[in-house]
Every structure is written in structure tokens, then in C-alpha cells.
Amino acid sequence: MSGHGDPIPMMSRKGGPLRGVAEVPGDKSISHRALILGALSVGETRITGLLEGQDVLDTAKAMRAFGAEVTRLAPGEWVVQGVGVGGFAEPADVIDCGNSGTGVRLIMGCMATSAISATFTGDASLRKRPMGRVTDPLALFGARAHGRAGGRLPMTVVGAADPVPVRYTVPMPSAQVKSAVLLAGLNAPGQTVVIEKEATRDHTERMLRGFGAELSVEETPEGRVITLQGQPELRGQAVAVPRDPSSAAFPVCAALLVPGSDILVPGVSQNPTRNGLFTTLVDMGADITFENPREEGGEPVADLRVRHSALKGIEVPAERAASMIDEYPVLAVVAACASGTTVMRGIKELRVKESDRIDAMARGLEACGVRVEEDQDTLIVHGLGPDGVPGGATCATHIDHRIAMSFLVLGLVSQQPIAVDDGSPIATSFPTFDGLMAGLGATIERRA
Ligand code: S3P
């Protein structure tokens, strides 16, 4: 099953060590936000290192539909001429956000406090995902939403003509919900306050400040209290997008697992709200060094030197979940090749990602001969040690890029090759994945 195009069956197999430099693409979260905040600003925003994955291209198209001028100058180099806060025009057609939960939820937020309506849809994966978590708080501003049963897309959002500011405690750890409320707060008068009990990725807060908004963050016993002053004039900025730690995760984990490997992954964001996987891998015994730490585009970055390592299973602290939420699929693969058991708790949000990732990983690992246990909020993987995973299965990816890439990494070390039914969703976040992995020496093939 694929999103919009034909499925692309893929397969990976065991081979020699991975060596060389892995230049992974720009961060997906920051790329979406650069286009959106550029569109909400006055003047020109120049972006370098933009991820040109399908999710971000769909957001660029959406920003054009709301009236911004968005131009690609060169690979990764884009310019946005914004319309200013409150300047969105009503789109003439349905906004198709493809596979992207981040795209649709953030865009709903930033149009919800203007007197315009927009109808949103997406691919078969996105149309299954819950939008009520965003439209509930947007209703507090005065916006209305009409979608399918269970708050599913397609959905029309009628923006509030006369928005009021809100104070909202986000009920689940979700940077998308937090961001949607903050973006809606931009065009409401007065102060919008968002409280999160657990810290989630903070790119929206950092970037809103960078574009000139007045925003404060206070750590309190209630949680992280974010206060935004409404109706600022955002000013176009130069944004240098750092490389995506969630994409870096795939070559990093592959190099840890394939004997003899030694790779360098330069310029990867080390934002503490995003780097939980690397901490976890080091806890499992990974040989990763964080070289040349520096600041780029307002984010801490480092060059990661990664060498093949003997890994042991661990219990991943549940409070680390938000900082590595997109990395559990590939961690489950690493856990399958580690000695001992890895316990991942506090991860029920994985059930509402591009697929139900607990179920997708559990079924695929079982098909590859790995013993797992799961409940609503937990995945436990019983590691078979290096060389222990039989493989030899075809895993279903459920229109989920990270499930596809995770099983293709496992196929690099399993006894028999591993196939995935559809690698086409990889293009949503990591369009250069197969070329980059081949450049390191991995055997990953598209099958006719
Ligand atoms: C994202 C937030 C996370 C993450 C997603 C990107 C963002 O989703 O899984 O890939 O850019 O804000 P949730 O907000 O659903 O946790």
C-alpha cells in the first residue's frame, strides 16, 4: 500500500562494513516551521538546507495556497515572501498535506484565527490520524471544524473572525498540538499561554523568538509554561536548517550494527529535546563521539563519529520518550540485535503516528524471528545478539517512512535478507536514503 504513487518494494541484505561520510538531509520539523513562519512574516525569509522531502514540499505548496510567495532558488535554498500575521488569504482549493501530521496540524493552527475557511486532506495514513487534539484547543479561540467521524480528515476549519486568546494545557506530549496553539495565538489579541507537562521539541518556541515574537518560557511545578504575546509583527529571517537527528538515526544505527563500520555524520542537531536516541545508544554501549560541537542556525549541532559496537539491552527511561519519539522504530531494530532485553515504556503516542508503530514494529520483528511483548504503552524486545536475527521476511510498512527504513537497516545484519512491501514513503523525510546508504557500502535495492 502506498500514499499517492505506486508502491516501491525494497530489500536489504548483509554485506561489508559501512564506511565514509553520511550527509543526512535538513531537519523536517525545522523545515516545516521555516516555511510557515516565513509565510507569516513581513518581508523575505531565506532558507538554506531545507529538507526537500514530500512532507515539506506539501507545506510549501500549502503556504502558496494561503498567499505567500515560495520560490526554490537551488537545492535546499528557498525564499519565502510572507503575508504577515493575519494576512493569510482563503485557499481556492483543498489543502492536501500528503503524509504529514506536522504539516496539517501546524497549518490548521496558523489559519484558525483568521476569518477564512480551508479544507484539509491527506493520504490514506494521514486520513486515519486524529485531528481533534488540535481542533479542540483551536475551538477555544473561536474556530470551528467539521470533519469525518473521530475528527478525521478531510476536514474544514472555519477560522475565528474575532479570536480570543487562550490558556491551554496540552493533554498529551505533542509538539504539534503545542505548536498549533502557539501559531493560532499569533493572530489573537493579548497573551496565549500553553502549558506542557513534559517538554517536547522546542523548535516553534526558538523560531518564533528568532522571527521577533515576544515569547517566554517558565519551568513551574505545573509544567513548562509558554506565554506568547499576540499580534506581533514577525520579520523575515535567514534560516540555516541543521541536519535531522531523526534521519541521522538510520545510518548511525546501521553503523553500530554492521561489523567493522566507522562513519561520520556531520552537522546533526543535538537539541536536547531531540537527542534522546543518542543518549540511549550510548547507554547500550554504543561507540559514538560527538565531535566539533557548535551552534548553527540557533541549534546546537555536532559531528557524530560512529563505530560498530557490541550492544546490550536496557530499560529506556520513560521520561526520555518525548526526546526520541520518532526513533523507537529503529531502536527496536537495534534492540533485536543487542544482547538481552530492551524495555520501552511510556510510548503510547507511537500508536497515532504515520502508522501504529508499536504494532508495525512488533509484527515485523516477529516475522523476522524476534520475540517481542507489547501493551498499549510498551514495547519489549528480546534481543538475539549480533548475528542472531533470522530475517527472511517481507515487512509491511503501512505508509510509514520510519518503519520502512528501520526494517531495511535490520536487513543489513539479519541472516537472510529483509524486504519491505513499500519503500515509497521514505521520500517524505529522507529522499536520499538509498543513495546515501549505498555510498556507505550498504546493499539496499529497489525491486522491480
Ligand atoms: C513533530 C512532532 C512529533 C513528531 C513529528 C514531528 C513536530 O509529533 O512525532 O514527527 O515537528 O512538531 P507529535 O506532536 O504528534 O508528538
**Cross-sheet strand order for the largest sheet:** 22-23-1-24
- Domain module count: 2
Bound molecules: shikimate-3-phosphate
Inertia-based shape: globular
Q: Determine the N-to-C terminus distance.
A: 15 Å
Number of strands: 24
CATH superfamily of the largest domain: Enolpyruvate transferase domain
Helix content: 25-40%
CATH class of the largest domain: Alpha Beta
Rounded radius of gyration (Å): 21 Å
Tally the helices.
Answer: 12
What is the residue-mean pLDDT, rounded to a whole number? 97
What does the main sheet amount to?
A: 4 strands, mixed
Determine the structural class based on helices, strands and strand pairing: alpha/beta
Low-confidence stretches: none
Strand content: 25-35%
Reported CATH architecture of the largest domain: Alpha-beta prism
CATH topology of the largest domain: UDP-n-acetylglucosamine1-carboxyvinyl-transferase, Chain
Structure description:
The protein has 448 residues and is an alpha/beta fold. The protein folds into two domains: 10-26 and 242-446, UDP-n-acetylglucosamine1-carboxyvinyl-transferase, Chain (Alpha-beta prism); 28-229 and 236-240, Enolpyruvate transferase domain (UDP-n-acetylglucosamine1-carboxyvinyl-transferase, Chain, Alpha-beta prism), CATH 3.65.10. Helices cover 27% and strands 28% of the residues. The chain contains twelve helices and 24 strands. A hairpin with a 2-residue loop joins strand 16 and strand 17. The radius of gyration is 21 Å and the shape is globular. The chain binds shikimate-3-phosphate.
